[in-house]
Amino acid sequence: MKIVALAGGVGGAKLVDGLAQILPFEDLTVIVNTGDDFEHIGLYISPDLDTVCYTLAGIVNPETGWGRLDDTFHVLENLKQLNVSDWFRLGDRDLATHIERTRRLREGQHLSQVTRDFCVAWGVRQRIFPMSDQPVGTLVNTSEFGELTFQEYFVHLKCAPKVKGFRFNGITEALPAPGVIEAISHADAIIICPSNPWVSIDPILALTGIRSAISAKKIIAVSPILAGRAVKGPAAKMYTELGIIPSALAIAQHYDNLLSGFVLDNMDISQSNEIRVETLVTDILMINKEGRRRLAQDMLNFIHKL
Amino acid sequence: MKIVALAGGVGGAKLVDGLAQILPFEDLTVIVNTGDDFEHIGLYISPDLDTVCYTLAGIVNPETGWGRLDDTFHVLENLKQLNVSDWFRLGDRDLATHIERTRRLREGQHLSQVTRDFCVAWGVRQRIFPMSDQPVGTLVNTSEFGELTFQEYFVHLKCAPKVKGFRFNGITEALPAPGVIEAISHADAIIICPSNPWVSIDPILALTGIRSAISAKKIIAVSPILAGRAVKGPAAKMYTELGIIPSALAIAQHYDNLLSGFVLDNMDISQSNEIRVETLVTDILMINKEGRRRLAQDMLNFIHKL
User: Does domain B3-60+112-140+171-305 have CATH number 3.40.50.10680?
Assistant: First the structure.
């Protein structure tokens, strides 16, 4: 079964890792949000792409779910001495990725090409695509500060400002990265990973051609919300601030007419009846590598029966 | 006594450190060669400037004389994994300098301004100038490979190719950095540090306006060659390959009509008579911090008597 997964950062990477444990590498393609990408200390940073690649390569920091395993922060310490703000924590091992990617992009290479080369170097055999080779910038509209870039909101201000809405800067000019539409056309199913719908999945879905390409496919989403709380990140806070009660149901309704099936946690079983598509009620937490594999297997079985 | 020192890398930095131990900070200005500067892994590297600044800041690697004290190489290790060549060894702490300098230069700041800010951050109070804010590239003409960039010759090929000559690319367009000519005009003496005449000092002297600015001043050079061998680096090898016997005398003749005085080692005392200017014969090795101070003090006394 050929799967295309749409993923943001840590939650998405975990499910992708579960799928990678089961599927032959050539049957798994991941399309990763790049709306969070930004330039920082003169370097091009692509947080979700790195999280997915590092996770599949087995070199991710297991405690945070992002950044590199056993990393040090000597560059950052010394940047601080030069009065460079250190709100975005970049480890030394991680920085090598940003330095070489930035060099290549400045040379005119495309992000998808750089990602492919890096995956080869890291031994990641699945196809990992940035959603686009053109820049798309997720802007978070807030009550206190107006529009903020995503990392400013997410990392610098720790998601404290009240959210009023979102905008994806550059989205109308951006195209899906080469190979993305083709991978979708060959897929048996599209999995929307348990990533933040507003800022991780919506940017991918908003790209020209993506909705029409996936519309003919089975599409299954996994809730990133469990018992009214986000497993990680500000998804639940965002729903509340936008006047929607955060719940698995809210996620299902978010994707509504796209879905063929929906996966929610045992704790939210009571919401299952209100969801208008087939549901799989299971343990969605993925607390360890085996938990990722198990959820992935449950989903593949579910897709098979749809 | 106000001193302007012309310096390259390690040898220059040592004498500058000796002078800094004696002179009030406002009486010492250093003009540093930037002909060795180059772009590597997308970053602007200024080796001589960093060596001088790190030395004065007390954060230089004491074993190599360049790079940072107690540095690690985690970025480099991971760049290597991405198939980036690691012939130029950049430590993690050192990289912070290159990252922030590159960001600022790309923003349009001048190298002299960036250097001034970095010196403030590192607690270096003496005035350290890059010789120019415009790029000058030292090219080494070799029998085997034709013209090589300096770092290609010096670091990558370990000075193995046979030297035929030198060229300073961009030298006619480059101007002395703002403040350089003024500092010279206020100086009581110019010290040419024991740096490589061909590739560390000649680029500074070749800049428009430098020779005429220093011509009215006492100029004292220190030999970087001792008993026919360079204390460090390829200076002696270069002289030999260019058909000149490497010696303190050859250095004195190199600077010839510029000099008011010349400093050479006790081991070369026999050459003293052949040198047409006043000489100071002393221990020039500077094997430790006290040795640097002692040579600097000997020189200041020598200048005073000239």
Answer: yes
